[in-house]
Amino acid sequence: MREIEQIYHNNFGIAFYWKDQNQTISEKVQLVFKETGFYFTVQELNLFCDLIEDSLIENACCEACEMKYSCHKFLLKTPCNSIDLAVSMTELKSIKDLVEGSLFRIELDEYVYGTGLN
User: Fold this and answer.
1) Can you give the pLDDT at residue 16?
2) Domain containing 67: what range?
3) What backbone phi and psi angles, to 5 degrees, belong to 81?
4) Which of 33, 57, 61, 95 is the most buried (most CB within 10 A)?
5) pTM of the complete model
6) Number of domains into which the chain is organized
7) CA angle, corner 37, sides to 35 and 19, nearest 5?
8) With b meaning 16 or more CB within 10 Å and e meaning fewer, what string describes 3-22?
9) What pLDDT score was predicted for residue 118?
10) How buried is 116 (Cβ within 10 angstroms: 0-12 exposed, 13-18 middle, 19+ buried)?
């Protein structure tokens, strides 16, 4: 089994970098949730974050509903133009946490080990 360097995880999924011969390949992030895997650049991950936010705004109708996030599936666009995901509002919020947490960690590491070094 290939080695990984974990970036972030929650109860719904994980984001990580692949390693090749103990060298971390940080050009792309492997994002895995709900039996689905995406291999995104950081730019694509940022785009996915924007698409998630758009979906949350567009599907905000659950706030006043008695079923509160438990009945409908919504289409979530991805940076892959030919792929949309059917997710519930609860899943959408978990994906949002996974992507935002991953981006936060990536940006923090870039600052601490990059521009933040003296």
Assistant:
1) 97
2) 4-115
3) -55, -30
4) 95
5) 0.89
6) 1
7) 125
8) eeeebbeeebbbbbbbeeee
9) 64
10) exposed
